[in-house]
């Protein structure tokens, strides 16, 4: 595996605040890599360290094998797409895309030709003469992408780029970004706090919490085999079961993770009291309690559901209960 980005013991501290704390990370060339975590977990700071907008307090960063220390952002073979797009309102779309090439001193005809090529890449052929104010949110996002890609970076850094879009457009852009990354074959590093976004788009996901990476792996592994209660709860809102309850079920005293969709009504199993019922459209979320243990189950579309206060019997397949020995 050829490394695009490598962190070796990287930290970034602000006084007593450890924004990034002794992180080791290896991102492969050509990989779609997601950094996932809540606000303040260190993911955006890590991205800014790669871009060169921040300097590490300790440790070493290598970008395509080259030590990044001392290399300014404009000389790093990476470009960043920001959530707010950062487009110049007084420039038309073509000149926004070509801005970096203008700063680099390219002739007007050459940079405009490259900008039109980049706009074609993001399905905005013919939009070069428009102003950003004449575009939709999704179109402005594409312009920001084109501007980042026109310099032909080896890695594209995306800092929550879809956060300002509505749900339907965000889902459409997720598909387009993944398709674009496959066609270009370059490294995409994507920062998000949206679990579904990370799981659906990334080849691998790093889950951040309190400045550290708490788990890294394929989306399926992160989802079905979380290593800590934090990962289980944050990624997909799993039922995190206490060690005493897990010991009764498995004989192993450790926290357990059980996805809500794995829990179902059954003729045999565990007696539970219904605490809440929430209709979600394609499914209904049922809050239950087994003894002192609160849990959630997701039931598919049906004509009848239990009501609050009902006593029901629930069960799950033994293999769906993941015991988190590391926790």
TrEMBL record:
Keywords: ATP-binding, Nucleotide-binding, Transport. The keyword ATP-binding applies. One of its GO terms (molecular function) is ATP binding. PROSITE patterns: ABC_TRANSPORTER_1, ABC_TRANSPORTER_2. Gene3D superfamilies: P-loop containing nucleotide triphosphate hydrolases. Residues 5-235 form the ABC transporter domain. This is ABC transporter ATP-binding protein. It comes from Sedimentitalea xiamensis.
């Amino acid at each position: 595996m050829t490394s695009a980005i490598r962190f070796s013991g990287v930290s970034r501290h602000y006084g007593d605040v450890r924004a990034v704390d002794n992180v080791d990370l290896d991102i492969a060339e050509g990989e779609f890599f997601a950094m996932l975590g809540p606000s303040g977990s260190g993911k955006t700071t890590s991205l800014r360290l790669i871009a060169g907008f921040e300097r590490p307090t300790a440790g070493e960063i290598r970008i395509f094998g080259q030590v990044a220390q001392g290399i300014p952002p404009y000389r790093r073979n990476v470009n960043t797409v920001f959530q707010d797009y950062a487009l110049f309102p007084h420039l038309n779309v073509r000149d926004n895309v070509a801005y970096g090439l203008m700063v680099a001193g390219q002739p007007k005809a050459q940079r405009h030709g490259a900008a039109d090529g980049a706009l074609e890449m993001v399905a905005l052929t013919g939009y070069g003469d428009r102003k950003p104010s004449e575009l939709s949110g999704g179109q402005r996002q594409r312009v920001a992408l084109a501007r980042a890609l026109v310099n032909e970076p080896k890695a594209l850094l995306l800092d929550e780029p879809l956060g300002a879009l509505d749900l339907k457009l965000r889902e459409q852009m997720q598909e387009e970004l993944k398709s674009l990354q496959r066609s270009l074959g370059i490294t995409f590093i994507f920062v998000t706090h949206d679990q579904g976004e990370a799981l659906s788009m990334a080849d691998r996901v790093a889950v951040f919490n309190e400045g550290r990476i708490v788990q890294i792996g394929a989306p399926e592994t992160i989802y079905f085999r979380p290593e800590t209660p934090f990962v289980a709860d944050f990624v997909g809102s799993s039922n995190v079961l206490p060690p005493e309850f897990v010991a009764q079920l498995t004989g192993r005293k450790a926290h357990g993770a059980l996805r809500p969709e794995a829990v179902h009504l059954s003729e045999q199993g565990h007696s539970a009291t219904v605490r809440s019922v929430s209709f979600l459209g394609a499914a209904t979320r049922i809050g239950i309690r087994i003894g002192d243990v609160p849990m959630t189950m997701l039931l598919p579309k049906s004509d009848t559901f239990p009501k609050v206060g009902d006593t029901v019997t629930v069960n799950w397949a033994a293999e769906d209960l993941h015991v988190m020995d590391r926790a």
